[in-house]
Amino acid sequence: MRHPILLAACLAGASVVAGCAEKDANATVERAFKDVNVVDETNLSDVMLTVADPNEAVSYFERATKEDPSRIDSQRGLASSLIRAKRVTEAAVAWKKVTEMPEATSDDSVEYADALIRSGDWASAEKVLDSVPPTHETFKRYRLEALVADSNKEWKKADSFYEIAVGLTTTPASVMNNWGYSKLTRGDYAAAERLFSDSVRQDPDLFTAKNNLVLARSAQRDYTLPVVPMNQTERAQLLHTMALSAIKQGDVETGKSLLREAIDTHPQHFEAAVRSLRALENS
Questions:
Q1: Phi, psi (5° rounding) for residue 230?
Q2: Are 95 and 79 in contact (CB under 8 A)?
Q3: What is the largest CA-CA distance in the chain?
Q4: Phi/psi-derived region of residue 53, left when phi > 0, alpha when psi is between -120 and 50, beta in every other case
Q5: Each residue of 180-201: pLDDT tens digit?
Q6: What are the ranges of the TPR repeats (predicted)?
Q7: Residues 6+ apart with CB under 8 A from 193
Q8: pLDDT range class, residue 41, cuts 50, 70, 90
Q9: Are residues 227 and 255 in contact, defined by beta-carbon separation less than 8 angstroms?
Q10: CB of 78 within 8 A of CB of 98?
Q11: What whole-number distance in Å separates Cα of residue 279 and Cα of residue 282?
């Protein structure tokens, strides 16, 4: 009698073990798929933040934040995508929400300040930056501090912040261009010219810096093109900028000559320069 009972007990035990093993296997498979999904989702988020159409990225992160509002990475993705889509007012609201989340960092506050500056709310941006600990020393923080100081015409502070920002990045061309423009607005044309030249040297493709360099030289009545890399279209555009600057300063004949050169240089029809020259000749 004992053998059937023992056999039944063994079979029952085997069933329990088999059931546990099956549950463990299922749990392992579920965890594996969950990990794969997290990786796939992270990769997709990276794509959305970099190469995807900005408005598509906004839609993607809007869906993600609705599904799980507590995920700060999705909230950051939405705020960043709104910046890329040039929806700066919405972006400022989104970044404010991020800064109020428990996992928020000083970097989030700096991004919030950036969004406020883009939306024209300089006073609020300054308050946000003031709330960032002084130990948070990053390129973006000091670049924004410099822009805010510029807006307040606090020139010494601006120069100090620009200098620090330049030292905190390996690609300082854009901040050098900003610093040069600050000098240009103050009337320090020689310093502006030097900074624009440094900017172009750092990034030969930065046309804004080339254009600003021409403005700084023209403000000193130097109507010769700087020796910087430029294609034929850029050369024509820079000549046009120089011509308008000369005319503004009263050097009208020089301006006309530069306009003619710009028209002759441009590989296509240069409507803006033609229109400017006609207006001068008709007047």
A1: -160, 145
A2: yes
A3: 123
A4: beta
A5: 999 999 999 999 999 999 999 9
A6: 173-206
A7: 180, 213, 216, 217, 220
A8: low
A9: no
A10: no
A11: 5
